[in-house]
Request: fold
Amino acid sequence: MGLDFSVVPPFAAALLTGALWTIAITASAAVLSFFGGILFAVIALYAPLFIKLPFRLFAWLFMGTPLLLQLFLIYFGLIQIGIDLPAFVAGVIGLGLHYTVYNSDIIQSGIRAVDTGQYEAARTLGLSRIQALRKIIVPQAVRSVIPPIGNNMIALLKDSALVSVIGVAELTLSSQMAISRTFRPFEFYVAAAACYYVINLGLEAGLRRIERRIQIAR
Amino acid sequence: MTDRPIIDIRNAAKSYGSLEVLKDISLQVKRGQIVAIIGPSGSGKSTLLRAINDLDPLTSGEVWLEDTQVNKKLPTRQYEAHINAVRQNIGMVFQHFNLFPHLNVRDNITLAPKMLKGLSKAEADQLAVEQLNKVGLLDRIDYYPSQLSGGQKQRVAIARALAMKPKVMLFDEATSALDPELVEEVNLVMKQLAEEHMTMIIVTHEMGFAQDVCDRVLFMDQGVVVEEGPPEVIFKAPANDRTKNFLRKHLKGQN
Ligand SMILES: Nc1ncnc2c1ncn2[C@@H]1O[C@H](COP(=O)(O)OP(=O)(O)OP(=O)(O)O)[C@@H](O)[C@H]1O
Ligand SMILES: [Mg+2]
Reply:
């Protein structure tokens, strides 16, 4: 049985839908992990210990265990305590929190790298600690760490394939469904890979644009 | 009332561990007065200046701004609200400008007035225009700090401080980080402020400027004010040997 890519076009619509779900879940988790990362970073650096500690424990758990396990826990495990999340929501939360922890690490180092003179200048004008943090420190920290955060987002896109195991019909699961009907794994996995590649190109182009836009504002 | 000092420092002392950086310094500055603080590196000039807005809190002693004690002891929360209100009256200009690089010139100037004084966008923009006009940089209103020269950055930093309509301006070596050819444009802005009778305390290494602009000169060494007086006296006929030594070294290159 040779390769025959003509089996793919009839499933183009299904694959495209899958690709759109991949984009949706990646974008949602990216937004969650970006703002979550800022929140976690600020807590890790400035909150009192009794708030800091539970967050630190949470961060260890999310860094030290497999993402796949986390997804299972959120989707299948939480049902036992009465939290029945739709697969898409469970996927966004799992991916989002996982990358929140990674983004938080990067943003923390970005905050530490902002010159103390920036904080002093803000405070001298009369801004409170929180105002200085919100308007001066965090925006600069985030700008300085856009490249490594971007790398995380690319990893996030690829990890989004994992949510296929909890039944989100994203790109990977869509191609598996096509395979189960055609028994053509090679063709469909290659087709899916090509789709991921194209999405990735779009993501990278977007990141480059953001980086260019913030260049002068550094 | 007019003779009340606007800044009143009473027995200021500051230590880092066993290192005494300020030793019982008292200083009164009247409205419209322009005071220069000179002295060798490490003598405590910046520490004293930064004690005025409590950026470097004193170990003991009091700082008063008119009838408000700047460094009064309060519970943390109350102190925060108090100091934020006080600092709005004290403008500060730093050696390294400390402009906010992620904001353009307009937003650098209007951020604090908008947040703290509730100015509308239109009012704030008008304020930015006024202040930039003053420092001669209206055409740079949409620029980012990274697109400005050092002298321009410092002039924007002065405009930013002035936009809060402070009662006093503090300058910590405002021209030390600048290339020599850019010093004059900043000095001109400061001279203009002097003509408008802005109260200023200026830490500087530029003896010529201190001589031209200031009403009073303080010479500090090792945490004490060794000698103070009008510039004619301090620069032309200093009484103290330490002052003489310092000036001999520092006036060599100038004049
Ligand atoms: N955070 C700190 N911890 C310990 N020592 C400090 C600290 N900040 C300043 N000092 C010391 O306090 C002394 C006075 O410093 P200060 O910056 O006020 O001097 P200065 O007169 O402004 O000097 P320069 O002309 O170099 O700016 C110096 O000996 C300095 O090493
Ligand atoms: Mg200094």
Q: What stands out?
A: Chain A touches chain B through 23 residues (CB under 8 Å).
